[in-house]
DNA sequence: GTTTTAAATAATAATCATTCTCATTTACAT
DNA sequence: ATGTAAATGAGAATGATTATTATTTAAAAC
C-alpha cells in the first residue's frame, strides 16, 4: 500500500503541471483515488463523493478519472462485464487476485515480471510498454461461506 | 496454433454432450471460433458468417459465443473499451501481446506461469482457477509506419 | 476585491456493446 | 411426416460510457 498522501500530492502536482484547474471536485476525487480502497468502480467512487458533493455529476467522475489516467496517475482494470475498476494508489502494472464470487480484488506481493517482459519483447519484436496480470479464483471468505 | 479441426470436433462434441441442437449457425460459428485468426471480436465473427448466413442475427453470435465459453471452449478477453475479443483456438489461459496502435493480438511462446500461480495461492489463500496475462506495446509494423 | 474569461461542471441526451423479448422457424425425437 | 421444445431473427431494452450545452467557477488580470 503506497502512502496515500504522497499519491494525492502527486495527482495535484500533475494537474498543476498540465495547467488544469484545481476544482473542489477534482481534489476530492484525487483523495478517493489516492486510497482506492478495494479498487473501486465508478459507481463506488461516485457514492463516496456524494457526502461532500451531493450535486456532483457522474460525468464529472468519468471525465476526471480518465484525466488522471492520462497522466498515469490511475490504473484502469477493464472487465468483460463493463464494470471497470480503478487504482490510484498503485497506478503502475502489478498483479491482481480477483474473487469471481464477491469481486474482491487484492494485490499480492509476488516477484517481478521483468524477465518475462524482456523475453516477450525479444520473441515478438514488440516494444512492450505495460502489462497486466490477473489471477482469478475464490477468496477464503467465499470458500467458507455456505451456499 | 492448435489444430482447428480438433478444436471444431471438440466444440461439436460439447454441444452433443450437453444436449444442445446442432444448428447450421452453431456449426458455422464453431468453424470460425476453432480458427480464431487474429482473436476476432463479435463484429468480425459476425462478418465472417455473413457469406454463409446473410440473415444471421448478431444476438445469435453473442448467444452462442457465450454458450461455447460456458463449456470452456472459448476464451474471452475483455477490454476497457468494451470491444471484447475471442479465442476458440486456444481457449485456456495464455499470455497475449497486444498492439495499442492497431489492436493486433498475438500469442508469444513463453514459459509457464505455474510457479507464480502457486505462489499467489499460498500468499493470498485464494483457490486460483485461471489467470490472464497481457503485454501491451507497439508491434514492429506500427513502429516502422510513418506517423 | 472586482472583473473577465476560458475551462469545468451538472444535467441529460446520445452512443455503443451487449442482453432481452417474443413471434417465427427448425432440429430432432417420435 | 408430425409434434414440440429449443433456437433463431428482428428489434427493443439495458447499462456503462461519452457527448452536448447551458450554467457555474477557478484563477488570471485589473
Q: What's the total helix number of chain A?
A: 6
Mean pLDDT of chain A: 91
Strand order in space, largest sheet of chain A = 4-3-5
Number of structural domains of chain A: 2
Number of strands of chain A: 5
Q: What is the assigned CATH homologous superfamily of the largest domain in chain A?
A: Winged helix-like DNA-binding domain superfamily/Winged helix DNA-binding domain
What secondary-structure arrangement, pairings included, does this model have?
The structure is a homodimer of 147-residue chains.
Chain A: H1 4-17, H2 24-35, H3 42-50, H4 58-70, E1 75-77, E2 85-87, E3 96-99, E4 105-106, H5 114-124, E5 127-138, H6 140-144
Parallel strand pairs in A: 3-5
Antiparallel strand pairs in A: 1-2, 3-4
The structure holds a DNA duplex (30 and 30 nucleotides).
Structural write-up:
The structure is a homodimer. Chain A is globular and about 45 Å long. Chain A folds into 2 domains: about 5-85, Orthogonal Bundle (Arc Repressor Mutant, subunit A), CATH 1.10.10; about 95-145, Dna Ligase, domain 1. Chain A has helices spanning about 5-15, 25-35, 40-50, 60-70, 115-125, 140-145; strands at about 75, 85, 95-100, 105, 125-140. The first copy, chain A, is built from 6 helices and 5 strands, in the order ααααββββαβα. In chain A, helix 2 (about 25-35) packs across helix 4. The two termini of chain A are about 35 Å apart. Chain A is α+β, with helices and mostly antiparallel strands. In chain A, a hairpin with a 7-residue loop joins strand 1 and strand 2 (about 85). Helix content of chain A is about 45%, strand content about 15%. Chain A has a 3-stranded mixed sheet with strand order 4-3-5. A two-stranded antiparallel sheet of chain A has the order 1-2. Chain A binds a DNA duplex (30 and 30 nucleotides) through helix 2 and helix 4.
Amino acid at each position: 500500500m503506497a502512502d496515500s498522501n504522497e499519491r494525492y500530492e502527486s495527482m495535484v502536482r500533475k494537474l498543476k503541471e498540465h495547467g488544469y484547474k484545481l476544482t473542489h471536485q477534482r481534489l476530492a476525487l484525487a483523495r478517493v483515488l489516492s486510497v482506492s480502497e478495494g479498487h473501486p468502480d465508478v459507481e463506488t467512487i461516485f457514492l463516496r463523493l456524494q457526502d461532500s458533493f451531493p450535486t456532483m455529476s457522474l460525468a464529472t467522475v468519468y471525465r476526471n478519472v480518465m484525466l488522471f489516467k492520462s497522466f498515469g496517475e490511475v490504473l484502469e482494470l477493464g472487465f468483460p462485464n463493463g464494470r471497470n475498476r480503478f487504482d490510484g494508489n498503485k497506478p503502475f502494472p502489478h498483479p491482481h487476485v480477483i474473487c469471481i464470487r464477491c469481486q474482491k480484488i487484492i494485490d499480492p506481493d509476488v516477484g517481478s515480471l521483468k524477465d518475462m517482459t524482456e523475453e516477450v519483447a525479444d520473441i515478438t519484436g514488440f516494444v512492450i510498454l505495460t502489462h497486466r496480470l490477473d489471477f482469478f479464483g475464490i477468496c477464503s471468505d467465499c470458500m467458507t461461506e455456505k451456499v
